[in-house]
Specification:
The complex is a heterodimer of chains A (about 220) and B (about 375).
Chain A: E1 8-12, H1 16-40, H2 54-82, H3 92-95, H4 98-108, H5 122-147, H6 153-157, H7 159-169, H8 172-204, H9 211-214, E2 216-220
Antiparallel strand pairs in A: 1-2
Helix pairs in contact in A: 1-2, 1-8, 2-5, 5-7, 5-8
Chain B: H1 2-20, H2 29-35, H3 40-53, H4 61-69, E1 75-80, H5 86-92, H6 99-106, E2 108-112, H7 120-133, E3 138-143, E4 146-147, H8 149-152, E5 156-157, E6 162-163, H9 164-173, E7 175-181, H10 183-187, E8 200-201, E9 211-214, H11 221-234, H12 247-250, H13 261-266, H14 276-280, H15 298-301, H16 310-313, H17 325-328, E10 340-341, E11 346-347, H18 348-372
Parallel strand pairs in B: 1-2, 1-3, 3-7, 7-9
Antiparallel strand pairs in B: 4-8, 5-6, 10-11
The chains are: A mainly alpha (about 220), B alpha/beta (about 375).
């Protein structure tokens, strides 16, 4: 394969804010999944001294990163709608075009280019939208569960809202079990997401993994 | 404390009104207490305890005492639907009659199928008479779910063969207030568990009035008598939570006030029943305690004269006072995350892992195909 004489160009696609929040979110999800599974089934043996609050500390970490995820989910929604660059918003045009869907699905089956209006393909855009909705739902159910363990401050302020959600969902047990189901959506998403990011970089020499680190998309010049 | 002052005045006015009514029993509460060897001091202690339980300031204890004495002026009609009578048992089958059961006996109980002497046509007549005489004034307590399928024909009560559905609708019309005693009357209970062939429902889904739900299988005698006392004292319903349960009883989770809570925070768990942790009184979360999802005052009020409650006895809470608990809280000896999903016979984690595995296989296939299918675009 001979690429040294192919002219490359670079485009700035992801702003610093998008990149920072992407990785903060990744870190939050990692910590939340691990601590969440621990809370669901505490597997560490008890310490010799009950002054060491094993469960308490794990829950503490879960709460801190849970609040981080809530904040990131809000900021990320804001950035999507009001961020300076419209590279994300432009992708909505592809979502409404049947042709774009066919082009993207074909490209995943090794047929043709992946031409897009914005930075995301239609299937990719819808997947990200769904994961954002799930993020909002896991944040809401998490806050409802939190309002039941701390009744002052933020927990107290959320009390009325938490009772309302608990009423709608038919009790705290369904709130907790849906919180658990949503976790699996993230786990499965992360695996597909990482594979697709790597694969896209190799196949299309476009939007490869390093773009979410550096912000630049290096790709061959169109000829 | 303006609201408390206003509430106090309201209580006083209400009790004044009750005092003007004809007592239903020949013996006053005082003589009954003397007969049973309950001292005045015990009675005042009980009044103070009920006041604290209802989250009212101490001066209200005189109102509670007065309300208990005037309880025979407030007509109560107690109906039994699709149920096991466990809720009534919780109240009346104490080994020695305590003040709770004594006061329940003292309340002007117009109709109660388990406790009344009448039977057959006479019982039916008593009910009709009570519903008519005290129309608009009686307190209606319902025990048991209401079957609604086939127009309610799964439950008929009495010699006239009225369905439970008809009886409840009729009785609810003239009720001053309605109390669902127990999980069945509140949320349907075991009769309403999937697939619910009789279409059993809670009372509040049948009638158009506010119904106080006293969840619990059974609710403790304190929660039943406390709610009755509140109504006698103020003539209105207490503050209710999202499922219309009194906040003074169901305002906190079982987990919040559990005596084993320290064990939970420390990460000391019973791994299986009978192990060393169980003997040490460790937290029962891993053997299925649903205390974290259940609103009730069991840890503080307990059952059977404050003797014990499930967690003290060594079994986790199974969430009996929550809506749909037979389906939502199962399996009772596993934490929720390890619940078997109906129809799949697998836990959420197993299903998740299988989907994850399928995803990995799909990704692998795509990756391998990519190697052969003209791997890179130019």
């Amino acid at each position: 394969m001979d690429t040294h004489n192919v002219p490359y160009e670079r485009a700035f696609i992801f702003s610093a804010a998008i990149r920072i929040f992407h990785w903060l979110r990744a870190l939050s999800i990692l910590v939340l999944v691990i601590t969440g599974f621990y809370i669901a089934w505490p597997f560490l043996v008890a310490p010799s001294n009950s002054d060491v609050l094993v469960q308490g500390w794990v829950r503490f970490a879960h709460l801190i990163f849970g609040f981080a995820l809530c904040a990131i989910t809000l900021v990320r929604a804001y950035l999507f709608f009001f961020g300076k660059s419209d590279i994300e918003r432009r992708s909505f045009k592809d979502v409404t075009s049947v042709n774009s869907w066919i082009v993207q699905l074909k490209s995943y089956l090794w047929m043709g280019h992946l031409d897009k209006k914005g930075v995301y393909g239609p299937l990719q855009f819808v997947t990200y939208l769904a994961i954002s909705v799930i993020a909002a739902l896991i944040c809401i159910t998490g806050l409802v569960l939190y309002a039941n363990v701390y009744h002052l401050g933020l927990g107290g302020m959320l009390g009325g809202f938490a009772a309302w959600v608990t009423g709608i969902m038919g009790g705290l047990a369904p709130v907790r079990i849906w919180h658990h189901y949503f976790t699996w959506v993230f786990i499965i998403f992360v695996v597909i997401h990482v594979y697709m990011a790597v694969w896209t970089g190799i196949r299309f020499k476009h939007n490869s993994v390093d773009s979410i680190v550096s912000g630049y998309d290096y790709h061959p010049k169109k000829h | 404390m303006d609201t408390h002052a206003a509430l106090y005045e309201q209580g006083k006015a209400r009790l004044e009104m009750l005092r003007s009514l004809e007592p239903r029993h020949a013996h006053s509460l005082q003589t009954k207490m003397e007969e049973h060897g309950v001292t005045r001091r015990d009675f005042m202690k009980w009044s103070a305890a009920v006041t604290a339980m209802l989250a009212l300031p101490l001066p209200f204890s005189t109102l509670v005492a007065e309300a208990a004495e005037l309880a025979d002026r407030a007509p109560l009609i107690w109906l039994h639907m699709a149920e096991c009578t466990g809720c009534s048992e919780s109240l009346v089958r104490a080994d020695t009659p305590n003040l709770d059961s004594l006061i329940f006996d003292h309340i002007s109980l117009e109709y109660h199928e388990t406790l009344m002497a009448a039977a057959g046509w006479q019982a039916e007549e008593n009910l009709e008479h009570a519903l008519e005489t005290y129309k608009g004034n009686y307190l209606l307590a319902v025990e048991g779910a209401i079957p609604t399928a086939n127009n309610g024909s799964f439950l008929t009560v009495g010699c006239k063969g009225h369905t439970g559905l008809e009886i409840i609708k009729h009785a609810a019309e003239g009720a001053a207030a309605i109390i669902s005693v127990g999980t069945c009357a509140s949320f349907g209970g075991v009769q309403a568990a999937a697939p619910n062939p009789t279409g059993a429902k809670g009372v509040d889904q049948i009638v158009n009035k506010t119904v106080v739900n006293l969840g619990g299988c059974p609710p403790s005698e304190k929660n039943i008598v406390g709610t009755l006392m509140y109504f006698i004292m103020f003539g209105k319903l207490p503050a209710l939570d999202m499922f219309n349960r009194p906040k003074w009883a169901y305002g906190a989770r079982v987990h919040d006030n559990c005596e084993r809570r320290g064990r939970f925070d420390a990460g000391e768990f019973v791994e299986e029943f009978g192990d060393t942790g169980a003997k040490e009184g460790y937290c029962l979360y891993k053997v299925g305690c649903k205390g974290p999802y259940t609103y009730n005052n069991c840890p503080t009020e307990r059952f059977n004269h404050h003797t014990s409650w499930p967690v003290l006895a060594g079994h986790g809470c199974m969430g009996c006072s929550e809506p749909n608990f037979w389906d939502d809280m199962a399996d009772f000896e596993k934490p929720l995350g390890r619940q078997l999903l109906h129809g799949l016979d697998a836990t959420a984690d197993t299903v998740g892992a299988v989907i994850l595995g399928a995803t990995a296989v799909g990704i692998g296939a795509h990756a391998v195909a990519s190697v052969f299918a003209n791997s890179k675009e130019d």
